[in-house]
Design brief:
Blueprint lengths: L6 H22 L6 E4 L6 H9 L4 H10 L5 H12 L1 H11 L3 H23 L4 H7 L2 H12 L5 H16 L3 H16 L2 E4 L10 H11 L3 E4 L2 H10 L3 H13 L3 H8 L4 H10 L18 H28 L20 E4 L2 E4 L18 H16 L1 H12 L1 E2 L1 E4 L2 E5 L13 E3 L2 E3 L1 H17 L7 H11 L13 H6 L3 H4 L6 H4 L3 H10 L8 E4 L3 H4 L9 E2 L13 E5 L3 E7 L5 H6 L4 E9 L10 H18 L1
The structure holds 1,6-di-O-phosphono-beta-D-fructofuranose and manganese (II) ion.
């Protein structure tokens, strides 16, 4: 075995180390990359992909900066659409430009514009990163084109020659697509997803696939809906029932089968046998006329079956865990004999469209035998689904309850506080957790639960369900989840869910300081929060300068939501235009409707000022030490 390096090898090694030090030092002096913050994707993979393709509004801004005065507004928009959806736009162009010289002219103009854009975007990245963003087969050509100074005549000719050959070789479309993808990749250096990748929409699995295939630099802060999915994989039947109920409510049951191989036959059979469709369980869909009636009936009945099992198991958990203080969520024992009325707080309310035929008045929270069979079948499938395991570990490995990144604090939800702004002390297992400790505590429970999936009524599963809907859960941020009332009691007051005082207090400077102290943040740090409550949906910046982002969740009708961009010059809130459909997005929709600069730095921020910069500095130190040895 060779143990010693030859003199030559040592020298080569030293040269390599020295050149790495030089490259790393140069990187420190590049401008900091652009970070984008989005949240509440709720399985809307097309909308998510639209945001990513458009650099969360960054690309249209760059097109405007670069081409104003040279391209009309409408042509700027066309160029931006091409960058977002190159394949689709190219097809359209070919159909329109049937005359060959016209098409070639369009291709030449497009090459030039795209190269110019790429050069503009690439100037803040080290070459290595630019190279990684470009399809390998085109790297050499693109590298040459990026370096060329076209103010020299000879270089212009060289450039034209290159592009001309690409057209002649029939590679024009491929080349355009490669350029557009590279621009997309460079528009955002890091994406922060502040919760709820999972939720009401059909394709959270595609969001995960997109992230794992296309993106290297991202992080996730878990949302309450994400917990339902991770909790189900860990064996929590309550998480699973809530999840199935929501899937049925939004006509998304097929996600379970198609993406995660979970066979719903047992619950479908049971539900169709035990329940009849009711108006309060009609699935919430826009295109109801396009959905086969049988599917709607199944959604309706499965939603009822899951709801009733959920209320039963919730009742059991609430009784098992008095420390959760959720007695106000016990309903089944308050139904009258006829099950047509219910008494809450001494007041009698009518039940509308009840479906309590599986509830035994003598023991209302007891799961019936047929329900038990369904539950066992399903929960075993959830913990054993390899795809679900893969995606949930992806969520876990790239996620956290909160993140401190480049000095800012990111999370989904709130830090639970009382009306005076004191951190709520949540008592569990004879210990009290509040503020940052509460977040850390939930992380440890989630980790433990996922490592040891258990289908029995265990402590971890109960805590994960609490994280979904408990009043002191940071991810929920409301006093109660009024699912029972919203299905069965026609009374707006009872149905109301109130936000934790945190959201009101966000307008107070002293309160924001308190949060910053708790999480060890600097004076100029920002707090960015996903899960925008409706009150914040209109103005995402609190007076205390906390920023609320989302991805334009469909619940807020006709509103596109907000993202935040944080680049080397400052921070901008971008109001997204509503995402109507993929088709609409490809050819007409503009991503951003408004941009508001909320912070402009006195001095441009460089890589050296970032967390990544700190890592580089550490690496340089280590390399220097190696050189000295
Ligand atoms: O309208 P739906 O689908 O029943 O959802 C309402 C429920 O969703 C929640 O808003 C939680 O989900 P979000 O995190 O997406 O807000 C609950 O507070 C509420 O009870
Ligand atoms: Mn949420």
């Amino acid at each position: 075995m060779k143990t010693r390096f030859s003199h030559k090898e040592v020298e080569k090694n030293r040269n390599e180390i020295a050149s790495e030090i030089v490259n790393l030092s140069a990187t420190l002096n590049l401008p900091k990359g652009t970070e984008a913050f989005i949240s509440d994707i709720h399985g809307e993979s097309d909308r998510f992909s639209h945001i990513m393709r458009s650099g969360a509004g960054n690309i249209s801004k760059k097109v405007e900066e670069l081409f104003t005065g040279r391209l009309t507004k409408s042509n700027q928009k066309k160029l931006a659409c091409l960058i977002y959806y190159p394949s689709e736009v190219l097809k359209n162009v070919q159909n329109k430009l049937t005359d060959k010289p016209d098409l070639e002219q369009w291709q030449m103009d497009t090459f030039n514009n795209l190269i110019e854009m790429l050069r503009y975007m690439a100037n803040k990245y080290p070459k290595k990163l630019v190279k990684e963003s470009v399809q390998p087969k085109f790297w050499e050509i693109i590298e040459n084109l990026l370096m060329i100074d076209t103010s020299y005549n000879s270089k212009q000719l060289y450039c034209q020659g290159l592009l001309g050959s690409i057209v002649k070789l029939g590679l024009a479309d491929d080349f355009i697509i490669a350029l557009c993808h590279a621009i997309q990749r460079m528009a955002i250096e890091r994406i922060h997803i502040l919760g709820d990748i999972y939720g009401r929409g059909l394709h959270p699995d595609r969001v995960i696939a997109y992230l794992s295939d296309h993106w290297q630099n991202f992080d996730i802060q878990w949302g309450n809906h994400d917990i339902l999915w991770m909790g189900s994989m860990a064996g929590s039947k309550l998480c699973m029932l809530n999840l199935i109920r929501i899937c049925a409510r939004y006509h998304n049951l097929k996600l379970l089968n198609e993406a995660y191989d979970i066979d719903l036959t047992s619950i479908v059979k049971f539900a169709r046998h035990s329940y009849r469709p009711l108006p309060n369980f009609e699935p919430k869909v826009d295109n109801v006329e396009e959905i086969p009636k049988e599917e709607l009936v199944t959604d309706n009945c499965v939603q009822q079956a899951a709801t009733i099992m959920q209320f039963k198991l919730e009742g059991q958990a609430i009784k098992r865990r008095p420390e959760f203080e959720m007695d106000d969520r016990l309903f089944l024992d308050k139904l009258s004999q006829s099950k047509r009325t219910i008494e809450i707080g001494g007041v009698k309310y009518n039940i509308t469209n009840g479906c309590f035929q599986m509830v035994n008045p003598a023991n209302p929270y007891q799961i019936s035998h047929p329900e038990q069979v369904v539950l066992i079948d399903l929960i075993n499938q959830f913990i054993n689904s390899s795809k679900l395991n893969e995606h949930m570990w992806f969520m876990f490995d790239h996620g956290s309850m909160y993140l401190k990144h480049n000095g800012n604090l990111l999370f989904h939800g709130c830090v639970p506080v009382d009306e005076q702004g004191n951190f709520i002390k949540w008592e569990i297992d004879s210990r009290k957790y509040s503020g940052r400790d509460l977040f850390d505590y939930f992380t440890s429970v989630l980790r433990d639960a996922m490592r040891h999936p258990t289908t029995g009524d265990c402590f971890n599963s109960d805590v994960l369900w609490y994280l979904w809907s408990g009043k002191d859960s940071p991810l929920f941020g409301k006093d109660k989840m009024t699912t029972f009332e919203r299905y069965f009691i026609d009374d707006a007051d009872l149905q109301k869910e109130s936000l934790n005082p945190f959201y009101k207090l966000c307008d107070k400077k002293w309160f924001v300081e308190r949060i910053k102290d708790e999480f060890d943040l600097e004076e100029d740090s920002r707090i960015v929060i996903g899960r925008t409550p409706e009150v914040k949906a209109k103005s995402p910046l609190s007076k205390g300068k906390i920023i609320f982002v989302n991805g334009g969740r469909p619940k807020i009708q006709n509103e596109g939501g907000f993202t935040l961009l944080y680049n080397s010059f400052g921070m901008q809130i971008v109001k997204l235009s509503p995402f109507i459909s993929l088709n609409d997005a490809v050819f007409s929709a503009e991503i951003a409707t408004q941009r508001k600069t909320i912070e402009r730095f006195d001095e441009q921020k460089m890589v050296t000022d970032t967390d990544f910069g700190d890592k580089i500095k550490q690496r340089i130190e280590d390399l220097c030490a190696e050189l000295k040895d």
